[in-house]
Amino acid sequence: GSEELPVLLLCHATGFCKETWLPVVEELAKLTRSPLTWIALDFSGHGDSRPLPSHPPPWSEVFGGDVLSTLDDLVGESDQVVGIGHSMGGAALLSASLDRPNAFRGLCLIEPIVLDPTSKPSPAQVSKHLSEVAKRRRGQWESMDEAVSHIRTRKPFQAFSPRGMDAMVHGCLRQSDDGVGGVLKCTPEAES
């Protein structure tokens, strides 16, 4: 007998978008003999999602809440969901699983943001530093070509496959209001 394949709930890192999971899903599909059921979400303030509120509650509430809302809206009651999350996505899955312990069959967490409250520097200091770095990021360019070129040269993205880079660019950039420039969908302020 074949075991039922789980529903994969894919959660991206801060500043990324749901499309970054497409190459992963394509590779996983090659490994299975059955069609995969998967959902990739855009967290609030990222990709094609709703914007973050002007004074958002703690991020664990916002992004953990995004996970739970996605489960409620698209999955319902199921014991077949496996959450896969990278960085903030992993932390959001942990937050959601603490709020709803039976929501997942399992979790696969890749570099989840989980800080030891006793560590040095403190979690507050780390958070402040990461926020300041994000605020300094460039968020718009004179042309879409310039935006794509800029992203392709950034160190975190140089290891992306061509398919991964195309997915990232497609999901994380939009045309500026003038129709010429390129803009990050997740603004530096939202990422911060």
From TrEMBL:
Among Gene3D superfamilies, the record links this protein to: alpha/beta hydrolase
Q: Which residues form the AB hydrolase-1 domain?
A: 8-145
Q: Name one Pfam family in it.
A: Abhydrolase_6
Q: Which residues form a coiled coil?
A: none
The record's InterPro entries line, in alphabetical order, gives: AB_hydrolase_1, AB_hydrolase_fold, AB_hydrolase_sf
A cellular component annotation (GO) from this entry: membrane
Superkingdom: Eukaryota
Per its record, how is this protein called by name?
AB hydrolase-1 domain-containing protein
